[in-house]
């Protein structure tokens, strides 16, 4: 998600610094960004000059000092509250006082994350969708302390990138994932209970409900660890058993079968074409 956000922000004419745990992560990100920009050139959406300029605007920031000039920081690390909290505590001392801090979290409370920073009034949820260069929507979520200036600046910025915003209250998983993830979780239960195979379930939803991707294919695309984290936030945050993560989803994550990113999930991606695993 971080590389997708860097892609659209750089294409929008802004300098971008990417920070990650290791330089190799940045190298992979740049390769992906280049591949996706090249695809946009081939389809006539942008010119080769746009591609080159966008790539030149993206640099690697090894330390948090590299964020010192940023007007906006978008956190897009692993969907784990402890990881995110640690990042916010660590970066804040390096940021300009008026810099806005945003999180791309799919589910975690914006108010709670904001409280770990030195600027809850300049903190906001900016939930880009996957894949960022293709998906039109960004959910905007205010924490209880987010001020009007921050909300307006953040919304104007996102819209200047050509995205459409939808405003959500700060409830677990906001709007899109509150609706989407229980459906994916139900698809995993359908598989777990033996109602249908991976292929049957995905075919059923593609052709029977006209979804562009089957729910299990989509789960692999999102990342099964991210899906599980979102279901846990829904289950704990809304205290309703209807959000209980499917034990089969838990088992896949425990096995390290996280979907596309680990080359194995409900499909096996190690061969020429994805093969259903059940
Ligand atoms: N996958 C999706 O479809 C999707 C869609 C919308 C939003 N999101 C949200 O975006 C965020 C990232 O999701 P993702 O799918 O890209 O996850 P991912 O697991 O693919 O990538 C997470 C990245 O964060 C990095 N990271 C972890 N700890 C870090 C730290 N302390 N400092 C710097 N970098 C660190 C990892 O090295 C990795 O590159 C999550 O909050 C997720 O909920 C995901």
Automatic annotation (TrEMBL):
GO molecular function: NAD+ binding; oxidoreductase activity, acting on the CH-OH group of donors, NAD or NADP as acceptor
Pfam families: 3HCDH (PF00725), 3HCDH_N (PF02737)
Superkingdom as given in the UniProt entry: Bacteria
InterPro entries the UniProt entry points to: 3-OHacyl-CoA_DH, 3-OHacyl-CoA_DH_CS, 3-OHacyl-CoA_DH_NAD-bd, 3HC_DH_C, 6-PGluconate_DH-like_C_sf, 6PGD_dom2, NAD(P)-bd_dom_sf
Matches recorded under PROSITE patterns: 3HCDH
Keyword line: Oxidoreductase
Domain annotation 3-hydroxyacyl-CoA dehydrogenase NAD binding: ranges: 1-170
Residues marked Important for catalytic activity (site): 127
Residues covered by the 3-hydroxyacyl-CoA dehydrogenase C-terminal domain: 174-269
Gene Ontology biological process terms, A to Z: fatty acid metabolic process
Family membership: Belongs to the 3-hydroxyacyl-CoA dehydrogenase family.
Name of the protein in question: 3-hydroxybutyryl-CoA dehydrogenase
Organism, scientific name: Methyloceanibacter superfactus
Origin organism lineage: Bacteria, Pseudomonadati, Pseudomonadota, Alphaproteobacteria, Hyphomicrobiales
């Amino acid at each position: 998600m971080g590389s997708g956000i860097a892609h659209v922000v750089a294409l929008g004419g802004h300098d971008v610094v990417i920070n990650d745990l290791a330089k190799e992560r940045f190298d992979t990100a740049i390769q992906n960004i280049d591949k996706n920009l090249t695809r946009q050139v081939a389809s006539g959406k942008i010119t080769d000059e746009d591609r080159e300029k966008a790539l030149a605007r993206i640099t690697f920031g090894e330390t948090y000092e590299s964020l010192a000039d940023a007007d906006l920081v978008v956190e897009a690390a692993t969907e784990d509250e402890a990881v995110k909290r640690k990042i916010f505590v660590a970066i804040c001392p390096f940021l300009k006082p008026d810099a806005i801090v945003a999180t791309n979290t799919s589910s975690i409370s914006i108010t709670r994350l904001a409280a770990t920073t030195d600027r809850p009034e300049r903190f906001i949820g900016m939930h880009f969708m996957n894949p960022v260069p293709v998906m039109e929507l960004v959910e905007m979520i205010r924490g209880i302390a987010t001020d009007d200036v921050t909300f307006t600046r953040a919304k104007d910025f996102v819209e200047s990138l050509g995205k459409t915003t939808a405003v959500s209250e700060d409830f677990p998983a906001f709007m899109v994932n509150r609706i989407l993830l229980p459906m994916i979780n139900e698809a995993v239960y359908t598989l777990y209970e033996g109602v249908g195979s991976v292929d049957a379930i995905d075919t059923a939803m593609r052709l029977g409900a006209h979804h562009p991707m089957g729910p299990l294919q989509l789960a692999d695309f999102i990342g099964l660890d991210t899906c599980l984290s979102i279901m846990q936030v829904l289950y704990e945050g809304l205290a309703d058993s209807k959000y209980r993560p499917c034990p089969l989803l838990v088992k896949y994550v425990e096995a390290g079968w996280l979907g596309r990113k680990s080359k194995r999930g409900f499909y096996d991606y190690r061969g020429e074409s994805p093969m259903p695993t059940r």
